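Trying the structure run again after the queue cleared.
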Amino acid sequence: MLRGIYGELLVAGTMVFVFEKVRCAHTQYLAADPDYAHVNAMSFIYYKMIEIYMEKGFQYLSWGTTTEHGGEEINWNLANNKEEFGSLHSVNSIFEKSVADIEQKI
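Done. Tokens:
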């Protein structure tokens, strides 16, 4: 977990899932307190994530999806924000498995 602290307050944070084998860190579940938007805590978290995982020799950072409504629409503001940190778009495959199919085989 990466946290953005302002004074003694937690004003932003994210969970980071680390995939050592492929040298990739993936962030998920980002959140920031809108009352502290002026301190740019999320930008700081992105910066620290870059710094930390570059030092560890990671090849990739994944900042998650930029889509809404079940992947039907691109959130262009979010995509542009991620591009400001040098990221590039990529398409990820989605794999699904019905729990009902698994239960029938058990």
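Strands lie at 2-6, 9-19, 24-32, 60-62, 67-68, 73-74. Worth checking whether this holds up in the mutant runs.
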